[in-house]
Amino acid sequence: MLKTERQSKILQILEKEGKVVAKELSIKWDVSEDTIRRDLREMDSFGLLKRVHGGAFPASASALTFSERTEENIDAKKELALKAVKIIKDGQVLLIDGSTTNLFLAQEIPLEFKGTIITNSPSISLALSKHPNTDIILLGGTFFKESFVTVGLDVIEVLKNIRADLCFLGVYSLHPDFGISIPHIEESHVKRQMIKSSNKIAALVTRSKLNTISNYLVGPVSELDYLITEDGPLSHNLNKYMELGIEII
């Protein structure tokens, strides 16, 4: 089997199964594990997959700026926001992580919502500024320009003293085996504390983020209570997420 054919088949398996194991491919195709590892290294260097010890996972899309992400998948993000707002109840303390999808969520929260919203996103706090019955707490810290959020020890220390009813976690990549991951280590620390500081965790996840991995692990997928994703036929199987006890919306 030619290298180009092997690599094409590897991508097909990743799309269908969500991962590849080098040893299994070497047996299946009667080639050495070194050959498969070379294929995976080369494909990783081109951003086609994310190589890990013993195999590979699908790679997430290249990191975009906040402004670029705001203009991406607008209809899908609005759809997710409309679904997510239905699990919000008056009187709750909400923790809303900064993300472009969560910004759409903030814009859908009814003006009459009575409760407290804590966020590390200046954009989300501004979107909620006209809600008369909503107390808004903006977490202060170092402003991370790539994602328009505050990060650092100051943010984490404040979060340690909070117990939110529901957290909407910003998710970059989600994989049932690898976990929740993102491309920036600064944000991973804040997200981990957000999970610890909340009773329930929800994530609004567009189709392109499902079954992919990025550079820095936030935690296992089982940390999620709600996975809010798009309607219609998905190329990725959601059974593994449901088996982890996550409610799919």
TrEMBL record:
Transmembrane segments: none
GO molecular function, one term: DNA binding
Superkingdom in the source lineage: Bacteria
Keywords associated with the record: DNA-binding, Repressor, Transcription, Transcription regulation
SMART domains, per database record: DeoRC (SM01134), HTH_DEOR (SM00420)
HTH deoR-type domain: residues covered: 3-58
Function: Repressor of the lactose catabolism operon. Galactose-6-phosphate is the inducer.
PANTHER family: GLYCEROL-3-PHOSPHATE REGULON REPRESSOR (PTHR30363:SF4), HTH-TYPE TRANSCRIPTIONAL REGULATOR SRLR-RELATED (PTHR30363)
Protein name: Lactose phosphotransferase system repressor
Organism listed in the record: Neobacillus cucumis
